[in-house]
Write a structure and sequence with these properties.
By secondary structure, this protein is an alpha/beta fold. The protein has one domain (2-264): Metallo-dependent phosphatases (Purple Acid Phosphatase, chain A, domain 2). Helices cover 24% and strands 26% of the residues. The protein is built from six helices and 13 strands. It has helices spanning 11-28, 49-57, 74-80, 136-144, 161-170, 217-226, and strands spanning 2-6, 8-9, 33-37, 62-64, 108-112, 118-125, 151-157, 177-181, 191-192, 198-200, 205-208, 239-248, 255-264. Strand 5 and strand 6 (118-125) form a beta hairpin.
Length: 266
């Protein structure tokens, strides 16, 4: 089984390159399951119901998010609409599972690929240098008691590399992959642990690289030079798609390979 995970989709540039390149990427690599982090898909901050459904229509099976999930208020009602309706598209848009009880939506999803393979996706958020939510390590332990699929991918949306790597070791042999998101900078530490868990500290950003983690460089430079507040605007140039491609055994869930992918806009 082959899983494609697309790193943080940032604004219209990120959505555009996904529209242009995703189908070819899926066909070229015979992808069975596609997951993407979409928390920055709406202008770089948050995601709307319309954008979420557009990404689903492009062939993304599950969308994970992170600390910007509530930036667009209309997403709360959309995510709540999934309650009691497992078949709705909204059920496949996740927020971190370790958010406080009663938060809109769900932090995990279990489904089947078009080929009939059962899979699970868990979305978590780190606590180091970020808002202090529930312990992602113990929340992951609890969720693994509920998920019956063997193939399980975890999106760890976190700032600290140490926290992401530690979660990979904590879940070694129990999940197929632990992939980091949030920093928008792809790391070259992809690895398959002995227990059959693929890890990468950060998959990177799908969006404009001629900027500072997606934002216009002039705006960020002014912020650093003056320490004055400024309105963040998405950059537009040097658009790239960052992703990770994982091969695994569909029966055991054990990963065998992980490969970094970076495509430039044509």
């Amino acid at each position: 089984m082959r899983i494609l995970f697309v790193g943080d989709i940032f604004g219209r540039p990120g959505r555009t390159i996904v529209q242009e390149r995703l189908a070819d990427l899926q066909n070229q690599h015979n992808v069975d399951l596609t997951i993407a982090n979409g928390e920055n898909a709406a202008g770089g901050f948050g995601i709307t119901p319309q954008i979420a459904e557009e990404l689903f229509e492009l062939g993304i099976d599950v969308i994970t998010t992170g600390n910007h999930i509530w930036d667009k208020r209309e997403i709360m009602e959309y995510m709540n609409s999934a309650n009691g309706n497992e078949a709705s598209l909204a059920r496949r848009l996740l927020r971190p599972a370790n958010y406080p009880a009663g938060s809109p939506g769900f932090g995990w999803y279990q489904g089947r690929t078009r080929g009939g393979v059962e899979y699970g996706v868990i979305n978590l958020q780190g606590r180091v240098f970020m808002t202090n939510n529930d312990d992602p390590f113990r929340v992951a332990d609890d969720l693994l008691k509920k998920i019956t699929a063997k193939v399980i991918l975890v999106d760890m949306h976190a700032e600290a590399t140490s926290e992401k790597i530690a979660l990979g070791w904590h879940l070694e042999g129990r999940v197929t992959a632990v992939l980091g998101t949030h920093t928008h900078v792809p790391t070259a530490d992809e690895n398959v642990l002995r227990g059959g868990t693929a890890v990468q500290t950060d998959v990177g950003m799908t969006g404009p690289f001629e900027g500072v983690i997606g934002v216009q460089k002039e705006v960020i430079l002014q912020r650093f030079l003056t320490n004055m507040p400024s309105r963040f605007e998405p950059a537009v140039n040097d658009v790239r798609l960052c992703a990770s491609l994982i091969d695994c055994n569909a029966e055991t869930g054990r990963a065998t390979t992980i490969q970094r992918i970076m495509l430039r806009q044509t």
